[in-house]
Known about the structure:
Elements: H1 2-18, H2 41-59, H3 64-83, H4 90-97, H5 109-127
Helix pairs in contact: 1-2, 1-3, 3-4, 4-5
Amino acid sequence: VIGVILLRSAGCVINDYIDRDIDPHVERTRNRPLAARLIDPREALALAAALLLLAFGLVLHLNALTVMLSFVALALAVIYPLLKRFFAFPQHECSSHNLIAFDCRSLAMPSYVIRIWYGLIFHSAAQFNTPCGTATLMIKSTVAIPESRMF
Length: 151
């Protein structure tokens, strides 16, 4: 659980770093520390690196497959903010790529499908707080589909 919290926190820092020039223009995100220029981008990268190293230190205590899959998780944490430039449903893109390492015959499949839909609904609901006009900022949004192309 601690590793998940560390990776999720690192993912948030990475997201804010990548969006630091976009977030000041979006009401919902303009007060984030990087968007408000309260911290230096290098400090954010150092924090993300520290969180990732701590998470990886925990993963090293697990089996080899889990260690290898941790690199997939890292890639998803990095590419998620970039997917917003190309897809209206970036959370779906990340969720669907997780199937690479998931046995679809597993009893956990219903739980996995519910998690994908929860992510889609949760992130879409959060984006409804963002005013339309995101297409002019070169990001996609589930609430701005009419203004931008989905794919």
